[in-house]
Amino acid sequence: MKQYIVDAFTDKPFAGNPAAVCVMESWPSEEAMMKLAMENNLSETAFIVKEEQGYHLRWFTPGTEVELCGHATLASSYVILNYYEPDSDEVTFNTLSGKLTIHRKGNLYEMDFPTYELQEIPVTDAMEKAFGVRPIKAVLGLDLVCVFESEEIVRNMNPDQELLKGIEGRIQNATARGKETDCVSRSFCPKLSIPEDPVCGSAHCQIAAYWSEELNKKEIYAYQASRRGGYLHCTLQEQNRITISGEATLVAISEIVASL
């Protein structure tokens, strides 16, 4: 079985968010996929099997299977459209979040994702203790999005991972208005066994939706300010959808020899 390591949301290796992509003829057991995800120890390992209509795609963190992952979807589309369907500019994945269709547009891979209803919730002392700084606003969808006063606060914070586990939402996002982009964010995922996701595409289904309403604009250019860093082009669509685009680059191709 071939495994590809692809850095997503970047045009250069060793930046953006790395994902492992495994292309298989049939499904191994969930236990085997979980073990390989733990072995890779990346924020996500994607598993793909070709079906009669499109491809079936599943995502695993080192701790659990997840229902949506942006950067591993981008990495998976990069692999399929460059190594398996090089004459095509479109690929459809069947996933836990429904059908996801990705289009290649020049150097960008455009993903069509669902958005989630965001509800403002009270800012709590627990949030302040976990992040080390008190948010000025908090909204909750699938993930928690905490808004802070400045980009510098988001870039420099060092949250308490154990305290973050006690806060609502599977991922705790910190975001602020950016100076050179529409917004700057970071994503912390201790509940998924990921201290910090370098560039989280699925989180921007909510982060970009929030800033779209705040800034009254449909197109949001976002930067995730992790140590690796990465850029996301987000456009709000009708019917509770969002397109998120980014670049990707190949780092390695390997052969998995262990029995799955």
Summed over residues and divided by their number, the pLDDT gives a mean of 95
**Pattern of helices and strands:** EEHEEEHEEEEHEEHHEEEHEEEE
Oligomer: single chain
- Relative strand content: 35-45%
Radius of gyration equals 18 Å
Low-confidence stretches: none
- Tell me the span between the first and last alpha carbons: 9 Å
User: What is the percent of helical residues?
Assistant: 10-25%
Biggest sheet descriptor: 18 strands, mixed
Q: Please identify the structural class as seen in this structure.
A: alpha+beta
Contiguous helical run count: 6
Number of DSSP strands? 18
Structure keywords:
18 strands
Short description:
The protein has 260 residues and is of the alpha+beta class. It has helices at 30-40, 70-84, 125-131, 151-156, 161-164, 204-215; strands at residues 2-8, 17-24, 45-50, 55-60, 65-66, 90-95, 98-105, 108-114, 119-121, 137-140, 144-147, 172-177, 183-189, 194-197, 219-224, 230-236, 241-246, 248-255. The longest helix is centred in the N-terminal third of the chain and has 15 residues, at 70-84.
Task: Describe the structure in your own words.
By secondary structure, the chain is of the alpha+beta class. It is built from 6 helices and 18 strands. It has helices spanning 30-40, 70-84, 125-131, 151-156, 161-164, 204-215, and strands spanning 2-8, 17-24, 45-50, 55-60, 65-66, 90-95, 98-105, 108-114, 119-121, 137-140, 144-147, 172-177, 183-189, 194-197, 219-224, 230-236, 241-246, 248-255. It has an 18-stranded mixed beta sheet that branches. The model has no long low-confidence stretch (mean pLDDT 95).
